[in-house]
Amino acid sequence: VQTSRHWGDKGNRSVDNGNDNLVTVCKNAAGKGITIFAIAYDITAAAVTKLLKECSGSNYFEANTGEIDAVFAAITERIKKSTLHITK
What we know:
Elements: E1 6-7, E2 13-14, H1 15-31, E3 38-41, H2 46-56, E4 60-63, H3 68-82
Parallel strand pairs: 3-4
Antiparallel strand pairs: 1-2
C-alpha cells in the first residue's frame, strides 16, 4: 500500500493512484512472464501484505529484524531451481 501520492490517469495525485499503479505494474509484469518476489520486512499491516501477496503469489515472503538473510537465501534457492542450466 502506498503512503505517498502518485499520479493517476486523470492527472491528479493520490494515495489510491499509487496503489492502482502498483496493481497495474504487477499485472503487466505477470502478463509478460516476469517473476516478482516480494518481502514484507517488519510489516504487519494487512492491507500491505495483501497487496504484496497478490502481486507476487507464491513468491511472497515475510521477514522481521534478523530474518532477512534467511529470506534472501530462500529466494536464491528458488531461483536456482527454476533456472535452466545448459552444460556442454
